[in-house]
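Recall from the previous lesson that a structure prediction takes nothing but the amino acid sequence as input. Here we apply that procedure to Protein p34 from Stappia taiwanensis. The sequence below is the only information supplied.
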Amino acid sequence: MTFRLRIALGSIAVGLLVLGLKFVAYWWTGSVALYSDALESVVNVASAVAAFVAVWFASKPADSNHPYGHDKAEYFAAVLVGVMIVLAALSIVREAWLAYVAPQPVIFSVEGLLINGAASLINGAWAFVLIRVGRAHRSLALVADGKHLVTDVVSSVGVLFGVVLVLLTGIQALDSLLAGIVALNILWSGWGLMKESVGGLMDEAVAPALQERIREMISTAGEGALEAHDLRTRSAGHVVFVDFHLVVPGTMTVETAHDICDRIEEAISRDVPGARTTIHVEPEHKAKHAGIVVV
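The prediction returns the following tokens.
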């Protein structure tokens, strides 16, 4: 089992632990805001499962039906998680409205509040691990799962503050109002996640900073060539695809041109591990006198 898969599996275990703790906190207090917080943890578990399946499928090697690999599976998982986040938010809105129409007293329970706080600390620590590992391994599924947990932590802190406020002021409507605010925060998180995932499915170019680094590597490693143009980039999970046209002198041998291409590919792979570079070599009369100037 790869390191990424072990992290994804650990996320399921952490999600189940936090889910249990938050439902105990809700059971002891009867707070609809804590219920909404616990309900979001159900989505956390579902998203962790989706991330595990996506990372497992994306790690499969390329085959005859998928010659470019299975890396885009992580984007589908992230879209699925985004949809589940939105559904959870709508469910919380319903519970908040029902509690506002027929408010139920919140029971003061130090144990319940402490348990919910402990669950949030666990979520926060694991979110840090997921985002760090996900970015290091360029795994959108792990980063998405981590960002969702960050949203959960922010919501939980707000919920705890609100429940304490209800207990101090006696205003029961604050519990429902806070649950509604949590739902809006969750909706925003789900929308952002789906937007990012759809961008990956639509083959958006890599970040401008990475594009500039790739251009510099082509320029410095392509000694002997004349120029490079029509650079295109896209991401698929942890893989970055790069393709461009490389113009060389018309009298250059195929072997020399091939050596230049090898140098460029190696330079890009060193800076962007796992990058897959495709270079179309063209003779001098195909130059556009625009794009990347080779040093």
